[in-house]
Amino acid sequence: MKNKIKSIVVILIAVMAGYLISHPIVFHICANTYKFNDYTGCLDSSIKSIGFPLLIFSLWVLLATFVAIFFSEKIFRSWLKFVAWAIPLAIIFIAITPVSSTAVMDFFPFYRDDAARLAGEVFSVISLIIIIWKWIVSRKNKGLVDP
Known about the structure:
It is a single chain. By secondary structure, the chain is mainly alpha-helical. The chain has one domain. It has helices at about 1-20, 45-70, 75-95, 110-140, and strands spanning about 35, 40. A two-stranded antiparallel ribbon has the order 1-2. Strand 1 and strand 2 (about 40) form a beta hairpin. The longest helix has about 30 residues, at about 110-140.
């Protein structure tokens, strides 16, 4: 149970950090603001490079975590073994993707937000596959499912 609570807390902190960094005007943490008529904007690069990707990826991980906590501790630990190597790989994948492009004609734009969304979706799908597979195997071992 401790592992489940810790993982929820860590993911919620990541979601809050992503939201905080993605909305610097609301939280008054923007160093370079500009004003155009009634609109106030932020020129800080942390919004696109860190804030939105962190928010997008952590929301997908939060979804998978909420699904995983409703299963047994054994299934949750199996899922945590997957998380231990999947999240660092996803972070590397997101970090090496460019924030934006300087090309004149960008035929297939794939930026950091897209990489975070893709990594989060793949993470969630694989998580669900692992959880369902482990649940079916555990039910077969208990004799609850016909072969």
